[in-house]
Amino acid sequence: MNKKTPKSYENMLEVKNLKTYFLTDAGIVKAVDGISFSLRQGETLGIVGESGCGKSVTNLSIMRLIPSPPGKIVDGQIIFEGTDILALPENELRNIRGNKISMVFQDPMTSLNPFLRISTQMIETIRIHQDISKKEALAKSIEMLKLVGIPAAEERIFNYPHQFSGGMRQRVMIAMALSCEAKILIADEPTTALDVTIQAQILELIQKLSKKLNTSVILITHDLGVVAGMCENVCVMYAGKIVEKAKTDDLYKQPAHPYTFGLIQSVPRLDKAKDGKLFSIEGQPPNVIDLPPCCPFHPRCHKVMDICRNQYPPTVDLGNSHEVSCWLYAEHKELADA
Ligand code: SF4
Question: For the chain, how many structural domains are there in total?
């Protein structure tokens, strides 16, 4: 009999028209509203936006970890290695969640159990997904801790989480996330709770491991500066939708959406410091309960036109995999100007 070889897929992950809503007493919160993107093997994709734009809900949807009720994935497909995750029964999903797709959260202290040694937590995680002995799982755990740069890993593995610094705890979380040879690592604001110097080390570590293990990474952040050195492609989210999608270099050189432009301007740069004031986008993100069908950015947009207040803009292909949802680039813009 022929031995089965793993299939190769052009896209490791394809998210198609994903809609995740929360049904609340105040109305329907369209946290994620019809987004689509793909992720190739070994690629690092950034998902950027302000708090509440839907980036974390997107990734919880990929893991099928949306609390229900009140949350519900109401439409769309999440194709991982050719299979729609949304159509899988819970027992098959367990083989993917935490095994093939892993997550690293913002604050490692909330993910690690403070009462259990790191060894216990890592061994358990590995043995849930792999049929190996405790001894083998311990050896694998130590190997992973070494890989993420924990010194004296053979001894430190028997420590409790509080005996590690914030940066070291995040390294432990990354080791746990990758210990089952995950194909996709979702890093949700992985450095927000850390000092600036440690932030750089953790991002560098994720980048290094992704290359070494050929793991695809989805990096969620509110900081476009973080994306610059890490990601090949970026999706900018606003009010539950992707408003711009591009290769990172193109997005920085030629941001098309006024919101992206504002985010780039908000990144602190030493060479641009003049009077010491940082740029900020005026106004607040909209309340996503029962949003009217217009451009949700229009109250904050300095290029707003009449049509923006009445209709949601179409998505325009600008070429070279650069897409934007904005009336400034739509064919019928002249109608708006009239
Ligand atoms: Fe601004 Fe209009 Fe574009 Fe929205 S559609 S970002 S309001 S120009």
Answer: 1
- Under 8 Å between Cβ of 167 and 198: yes
* 193: CATH: 3.40.50.300
Pocket test for ligand 1, best of 308, 310, 312, 332 (most atoms within 8 A of CB): 308
Q: Is residue 316 part of a domain?
A: yes
pTM: 0.87
164 close to ligand 1 (CB < 6 Angstrom): no
Could you list the residue range(s) of the whole structural domain that residue 275 is in? 13-100+180-337
Mutate to test the pocket of ligand 1, among 291, 305, 318 (most ligand atoms within 8 A of CB): 305
Choice among 18-22, 56-60, 64-68, 272-276 with the minimum mean pLDDT: 272-276
